[in-house]
Amino acid sequence: MLRRFYKSLFISRRWYWLFVSVILLFILSFGISLLFTIAQLLLLFVVVTSMLDYLILFTRKDPVLVQRELSDRFSNGDQNPVKLVVINQYPFRIRYRIIDELPDQFQRRDFRLDGELRPGETTELFYELRPTERGEYIFHDINVFIKSPFGLVVRRKILPSKKMVKVLPSYLALRQFELLAASHNLAESGSKRVRRQGQSLEFEQIKEYVIGDDIRNINWKATARKGGQLMVNNYTDEKSQQVYCVVDKGRVMKMPFDGMSLLDYAINATLILSRVALIKQDKAGIVTFGDQIGTYLPAGRRAMQMTNILEILYNQQTRFHETDYEKLHALVRTRITQRSLIVLFTNFESLSGLKRELPSIRAIARNHLLLVVFFENTGLKQIQTSGTEDIEGLYIKTIAEKFAYEKRLIVKELNQHGILTILTAPENLTVQTVNKYLEIKARQAI
Known about the structure:
Blueprint: H1 2-8, E1 9-11, H2 13-28, H3 34-58, E2 64-69, E3 73-75, E4 80-88, E5 94-100, E6 113-117, E7 122-129, E8 135-139, E9 142-147, E10 153-159, E11 163-168, H4 171-182, E12 202-208, H5 220-225, E13 231-236, E14 242-248, E15 256-257, E16 260-261, H6 262-279, E17 283-289, E18 293-300, H7 305-314, H8 325-335, E19 341-345, H9 351-367, E20 369-375, H10 378-385, H11 391-416, E21 420-424, H12 429-443
Parallel strand pairs: 3-11, 14-17, 14-19, 19-20, 20-21
Antiparallel strand pairs: 1-10, 2-4, 4-7, 5-6, 5-9, 8-11, 9-10, 12-13, 15-16, 17-18
Helix pairs in contact: 2-3, 4-6, 6-7, 6-12, 8-9, 10-11
């Protein structure tokens, strides 16, 4: 009981300053006797006021109510809102400080919210959190420190508010791209309009000829059966093409950027690209691999496909091994028999690293339309644009330019073998990948 009392009672700075003033007055009273009486009166005032402050703060069992409102899941890499509803149940004005015990992953030890409330007043406090890794995040208790108008004693109230939140791949960005894809307008995200070429030959139905139909599509056999009534074949845009997002989980994808790993950027882009593909009437599938094949989800358009994709991506973790592209090629050869668009999210830092894996990559590209997506090293870009003041700086800048040149050689090497490529900064990955898919879709290249 005594331990709980000490946990809930604190002395404010104002009390300490008053107590120091009392001590100084007693010391000075040795030379000035009049100050002794003033010091006694001030001491009595501090004691009485402190007792009164304690009584009005601790007589109420639930002086302040705080309720945390947040979603059951957070979006990785995005700002997620959290709301605190604070209610003052005292009959007087209070000052408060709220310390919300955030999940350990955020590593924030200086988080606090200060304010004042009138008697019976309710207020709402908002703040945002940006997680940088997937997983389970646990919010702990809410600590409220309360001061009365006297401001001498501080009451601490611990409100149990433990809650677990799942951090999933970036579903907030997913909603944004859903709207853009549905409206066929990605101009705001940096896309280019691509003129649609050619005509799909996917048959839809036979219907009666009306003025304006293409006479080249007249079905003469059906016309003969109808006794001379012209019948035409009706065609529609080809749909339900297969789009597979293949995510590399090797050690090269552990590289960090802005708090997130390259794997997390690839997972966010995979989620959004899969959703856009489904909106465009294509079938979306997932493959993850490292030194072993991880997860394989066949391409489909079932109602639960996005739920399955989200669940698979949530559980993916980087493996600290070299990636085995031969096993990937074996899976693609045996499991993906229909020609598909395969979007490979990986990373190459050198041309020699690409050439080791090039035979397997070329083998995949023979039967499928392969798009290789890998990352620019933005840290090297900053070094290239910065000035140099000494020989060491010049040496570092030269090495950075060499690695950047290697990236351009990788793009050239893949293009020479007819393999599509995207070299992008991590923050532009999603937009670049979706734009490329829409361009491929418009050209009917699959």
